[in-house]
């Protein structure tokens, strides 16, 4: 949960990869870590907003109660969620070419974070390099040649051998 919205206890949440607003209707969830006691909440009044998804948790009636939940995670039973889609392996094996440093290696892993994905690039002259998948870095994806053209931001690479 990322922030409180209004005065009636609604919170903005960031959805896990692969979930949609439609998957949440009447979903039973638990707050982790629990604010006081472990209890189950039902989600309701779900709607997308510019910075995430707005939800109301049962029995959270005001902004003060909602504020206690910000920064916590909502967990649901796996059996209550839709079947997970097959994950796109997202650039595994692609060669990564930086506009300043040239080839920096191949993508060996994709880390899914709450904000943006991060590519782990290895096998190049700089050792392991972590590349954020953001517009300021990613310049071109060449699927035919399995190549990513990027421009790393300052501080993302140690010119003497790896991630700073």
Q: In a few lines, what is going on in this structure?
A:
By secondary structure, the protein is mainly β. It is about 5% helix and about 40% strand. The protein is built from 1 helix and 12 strands.
What would you note in describing this structure?
The protein is mainly beta and 164 residues long. Helix content is 3%, strand content 41%. It is built from 1 helix and 12 strands; from the N terminus they run E-E-E-E-E-H-E-E-E-E-E-E-E. It has a 6-stranded antiparallel sheet. Strands 10-9-8-7-12-11 form a 6-stranded mixed sheet, with no helix packed on it. The longest helix is centred in the middle third of the chain and has 5 residues, at 63-67.
Q: Label the overall shape.
A: elongated
Count of helix runs: 1
Helix amount, in percent?
A: under 10%
Q: Could you spell the SSE succession in H and E letters? A: EEEEEHEEEEEEE
How far apart, in Å, are the first and last alpha carbons? 30 Å
Describe how the helices and strands are arranged.
Blueprint: E1 3-5, E2 10-13, E3 28-32, E4 40-49, E5 52-57, H1 63-67, E6 73-75, E7 95-98, E8 102-111, E9 118-124, E10 127-132, E11 138-142, E12 147-150
Parallel strand pairs: 7-12
Antiparallel strand pairs: 1-2, 2-5, 3-4, 3-6, 4-5, 7-8, 8-9, 9-10, 11-12
Provide keyphrases for this structure.
41% strand; 164 residues; mainly beta; six-stranded mixed β-sheet; 12 strands; single chain
């Amino acid at each position: 949960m990322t922030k409180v919205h209004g005065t009636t206890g609604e919170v903005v949440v960031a959805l896990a990869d692969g979930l949609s607003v439609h998957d949440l209707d009447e979903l039973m969830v638990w707050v982790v870590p629990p604010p006081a006691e472990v209890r189950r909440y039902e989600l309701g009044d779900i709607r997308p907003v510019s910075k995430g998804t707005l939800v109301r948790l049962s029995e959270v009636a005001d902004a003060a109660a909602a504020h206690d939940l910000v920064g916590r995670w909502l967990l649901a039973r796996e059996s209550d969620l839709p079947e997970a889609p097959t994950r796109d392996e997202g650039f595994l094996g692609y060669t990564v070419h930086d506009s300043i440093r040239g080839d920096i290696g191949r993508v060996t892993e994709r880390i899914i974070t709450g904000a943006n994905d991060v590519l782990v690039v290895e096998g190049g002259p700089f050792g392991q390099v972590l590349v954020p998948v953001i517009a300021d870095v990613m310049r071109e994806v060449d699927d035919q040649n399995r190549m990513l053209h990027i421009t790393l931001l300052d501080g993302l690479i140690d010119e003497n051998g790896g991630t700073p």
